[in-house]
Write a structure and sequence with these properties.
By secondary structure, the chain is α/β, with parallel strands linked by helices. 35% of the residues lie in helices and 17% in strands. The protein starts with a strand and ends with a strand.
Length: 274
């Protein structure tokens, strides 16, 4: 019984297969508290995948009227996931101001200007170099942008890593993580714990204890004053909605976190983790 803060539908995210009906029906069956749709908006995406990675927000909000009607009294929130690049903060900040989003996720899907999902050659570099550079860019992203609510999947870079021990850890780049956390905390934003990333680690053969985020990352964020934490399944299909949330909530509570942070009309709300 949690709110899932990060999801995509086939209607406005080209890499998703889930319809809005499937999303709402599944959430109801699982007795979830609420769900946020956060469609991809990847400005100037560098790879040609046959379909645009952006959408028309006006069309999105027009289509959502039917979604809201179908959802009835079930809490359906409308959001966006912005794919950061260095030249886009001003554009994103101004665009978000023009539309009534409930929640805005800010993410980085690129390393050296390319998506590791396609650009696997990036992993030929030393792991520490790759992870340090990626988190440094995440920190710059959090600092340069203002109009967002959640920093998405800081561990996106380790999803496709072929290293023997691919889990990103605080000790790989402590200064970069501190810089990222400082920006999140000072701006009153929330750090996402992405259960899709956790599941990717499970798929590599690691057990749940290992796969859940590095404890030093969570303990350091908490130590620095971070209290806002948001669980998101990053679902593109209905079968992963609220994936591993009970296990993740229990894990987060062990560090002192008490709430899963979600947003309505860009206003922060907390629900109990346990």
């Amino acid at each position: 019984m949690y709110t899932d803060n990060h999801n995509h539908t086939k209607h406005f995210s080209s890499d998703a297969k889930m319809s809005y009906q499937e999303l709402i029906d599944t959430c109801r069956k699982q007795n979830m508290r609420g769900v946020a749709v956060t469609e991809h908006y990847e400005g100037d995406y560098p790879h040609d995948i046959g379909e645009p990675q952006i959408f028309d927000p006006k069309e999105y909000f027009e289509a959502s009227k039917k979604w809201k009607e179908y959802a009835g009294d079930f809490p359906l929130r409308l959001g966006i996931e912005l794919g950061w690049q260095k030249h886009l903060p001003k554009f994103y900040d101004e665009m978000v101001d023009r539309y009534p989003f409930d929640v805005v996720i800010l993410s980085n899907h690129l390393y050296r200007g390319k998506d590791p999902y396609f650009y696997r050659e990036c992993y030929e570099e030393n792991m520490i170099t790759v992870y340090s550079r990626y988190i440094d860019e995440m920190a710059q992203m959090a600092e340069d942008c203002s109009n967002y609510d959640i920093i998405g999947h800081y561990d996106y870079i380790n999803r496709y890593a072929p290293y023997e021990d691919p889990q990103i850890r605080y000790d790989h780049c402590p200064e970069a993580f501190d810089r990222l956390f400082s920006a999140i905390i000072s701006k009153g934003k929330s750090l996402e714990v992405n259960t899709r990333s956790i599941d990717k680690m499970k798929g590599k053969g690691f057990d749940m204890t290992y796969s859940l985020p590095d404890p030093k990352i969570l303990s350091r964020y908490y130590e620095m004053g971070g209290r806002n934490i948001s669980m998101g399944s990053d679902s593109h299909t209905k079968d992963t909605l609220c994936l591993l949330f009970p296990e993740t909530a229990k894990y987060l509570s062990s560090f002192g976190f008490t709430e899963n942070t979600y947003f309505v009309k860009r206003q922060k709300i907390g629900e109990p983790l346990i």
